[in-house]
Every structure is written in C-alpha cells, then in structure tokens.
Specification:
17% strand; alpha/beta; three-stranded antiparallel β-sheet; 10 strands; 246 residues; 34% helix
Length: 246
C-alpha cells in the first residue's frame, strides 16, 4: 500500500484528477471504476475542465460506477448514474455503450447484479478502481461486516443516507431502498486501486484502515492486502497516522 499525503484539499483534488487523466491517456482502452460523493466531485470537475481545454482520445475508454442506489428513478439527482453523468461522463462525451451502470429499478436485482458484473468482466475487468473512504470504513455500499468473499450484491445503506434519499424521492417506508455494489472480491480484482480520503472527519478511520488489523468490520482495511493500491490523503485526513508513515 502506497500512501501519498498532500498539504490541502486543493492539492488533493488536483493530484487525484491527474491520477485519473494519466490512466486515461497512458491506457486509451482502460476500464476505469468511478465513485461518487463529496470526495470525488471536485476531482471529476477538474478532469472535465482539463478535457475541455486539452482534448484527448476517450473513444476506447470504458467507465463504470462502483455502486448504485436501488428503487429510485434513474433521473433522481442522487442516483450514481446521474451524478457521474453530470460531473464527468457527458463532459467527456463518453458513448452510452462505454458507460456501464446497473439499473436503479428492477424486478430481479440478483439478475441485475450478475448483468452488471458480467458487463465489466467482458471488458477485461478494472484497470483502475477509484474509491472513496466512508467514515465507517465502507467501500462502495459494502458496510462494516460485509464478507470479503462477496461479489456484486445489494446491501443496505447507512440510516442517515437512507433517510435523506427517502425524503428527496418521497419513497414510503414500506418500499425497500438499498445499494447495489461491487463486492469486496470484485474490488480486490482491480489491477490498480486509488483510495481517496480528505478532511479531518476521515482521520480516525484512515488510521484504523491503514494501521489496524484487516477485518470485515472495517471493509477498507482489506486494501492493505492489495498489490497495487495507493491511498491519497490530505494533511487533515492523515493527521492521526503514526509519524513513520507521514
């Protein structure tokens, strides 16, 4: 596990963006997994701006999101499909067939999981998987306690996120919401992984996932075992790490 620490959020966002652009340019046929949320939003905007200013060939790229909310309209602003489209996919003019996402609505989510996983595998699997680090150590929607051996599945989301999504989509309590996500096993098959964490709120979980034991109670801790994983941190997220790691 390689640990890279930068001084502030501005440097963090810029370096994360260049990591993504570098993969796109050096490997024009790359299959790249993306993540949504506060950690990656600025990175996506920088990549989109760079592409506008200095266009590069994206015709051979395949992009996909690591997870998706289930049982909400795809047009919902909080759907991962829509966030990725608005932040990056449309700006890069990525063809629809090269943007792989599961459906948000289905009468058979087990089938949807298989279809999503097989579509990525058919392209050769992820050359680079970009991940955000949840404050409880989750990866995608793989929450604490998720088995490391699980492949693509529908799991639960944290209560705060679920409450917000229900309110924004007017989803009644009797309708189940979940998170369709690549499993830990799928994530670990990625040839390269870039894990992103910024801000003081992430400092505690950063220390536990890097310096603590590998345990399903902290899903991100499994990345200690990946042969090619970089953890990119800003100074605030890294502030609790042991001095020999900084």
């Amino acid at each position: 596990m390689k640990i890279t620490i930068v001084k502030n959020e501005k440097e963090f966002d810029a370096l994360a963006a260049w990591r993504l652009v570098s993969e796109m340019v050096s490997n024009p046929n790359a299959v790249i997994g993306l993540s949504t949320g506060r950690t990656t939003k600025n990175m996506h905007e920088i990549v989109a701006r760079l592409y506008t200013q200095y266009p590069f060939d994206v015709s051979g790229l395949t992009l996909f999101g690591v997870d998706e909310v289930t049982n909400v309209p795809r047009e919902y602003a909080g759907a991962c499909y829509t966030m990725l489209r608005n932040e990056l996919i449309d700006a890069l003019d990525i063809n629809e067939e090269n943007f792989i996402m599961p459906s948000t609505l289905s009468d058979d989510f087990d089938r949807e999981c298989r279809t999503f996983q097989q579509a990525i595998e058919k392209r050769g699997g992820a050359d680079l998987q970009i991940l955000g680090l949840g404050e409880n150590g989750h990866l995608g929607f793989n929450q604490p306690g998720s088995p490391f051996e699980r492949e693509t599945w529908v799991t639960h989301m944290d209560e705060v996120l679920e409450a917000r999504i229900r309110k924004e989509t007017n989803t009644p309590p009797e309708k189940e919401l979940g998170g369709l996500t690549l499993g830990i096993r799928n994530i670990m098959r990625s040839r390269k992984i870039l894990l992103l964490a910024k801000g003081a709120a992430k400092a505690g979980i950063v220390k536990r996932m890097i310096e603590g034991p590998v345990t399903p109670e902290i899903p991100a801790s499994v990345l200690q075992l990946h042969p090619c994983c970089e953890v990119l941190l800003d100074a605030q997220a890294a502030k609790l790490l042991s001095s020999d790691l900084i």
